[in-house]
Amino acid sequence: MVSAQIVPERVDRELRQGGRMALIADISVPDLPTGSATIVATHLENKCSPACRRRQMQALLAEVKPDRNLVVIAGDLNTTGRDNTPTSIRNEIMTRVRDYRFWAGEAVSHFHPLGVFQYTLLPVRYFHGYNDPTAFHLPILWDNREQPLFKTMEEFRFADDGAFDFRGERERTSPPRGRTLANSNQRGRKGFTPTYAFARDFGGLVGRFKLDWIFVKPSKLDRRQTEQSHRFAPHFPLTMRELNDSVAERISDHPPMTVDLSLTEATKLVP
Fold first, then answer.
1. Which domain holds residue 57?
2. Contact call for residues 199 and 216 (beta carbons, < 8 A)
3. Does the N-terminal or the C-terminal CB of the chain have fewer CB atoms within 10 Å?
4. Does the residue 193 lie in any domain?
5. Residue 9, in any domain of the structure
6. What does 124-176 look like in DSSP terms, one character per residue?
7. Sheet strands (E) in 58-133
8. CATH code where residue 58 lies
9. 223-268, pLDDT tens digit by residue?
């Protein structure tokens, strides 16, 4: 990491060889119908826009689409909701000039009688998607630019008509919290349990992010329908923040995450 001090802000430049990629491996699990599971470890780009990360995920999904195994995709998706592309003042100006959302927002604020109130809603809009990149997205008026990535994941179908488990059943989470993806990713009081935090986050008010995710394709699933098989489905996800913070320097800047995968139809739920 190379740092430069440019008054009045600090710019970090990360020198890389190559680009982001995914690692895909088949592991032998005799109890599964195909005898194997496909495990995908991925890391999406942080120095690009949410739309760019969505395209990266679409490319990865195209690779695994023919797979008839149970599939687990997990890793750092960098779902900050922001475009962290290295930039300059000129690039920032040109980005706005070319962005229809910028001009649409300006039109709303200047010509609509209630346009001025969009600025008073900025804190509400910020906390709407805080730690929940899956939250409702309405371009311009109620932006959550990461949500289309999750829409892509939810609507994706494998060649065998399998889908990722987006269920959120309270009885299969601990502590019991429902809603989207709760079966595979631990939810917090607001949104999901963060997996990354700045050193100074002002008591959690800002600077905490849910960047790391686990997506599971079980044996048979109609995405959000709860009254169906839970065989090979995710249960009791956990983000180990306490373990990660148990040493002074932290184990990692991202805490480990786990989820239970049932090899048989779960009849008794034990977190």
1. 16-86+143-261
2. no
3. N
4. yes
5. no
6. HHHHHSTT-TTS--BTTTB--TTHHHHHHHHH---TTS--------GGGSSS-
7. 70-76
8. 3.60.10
9. 566 667 788 889 999 999 889 888 888 888 899 999 999 887 754 5
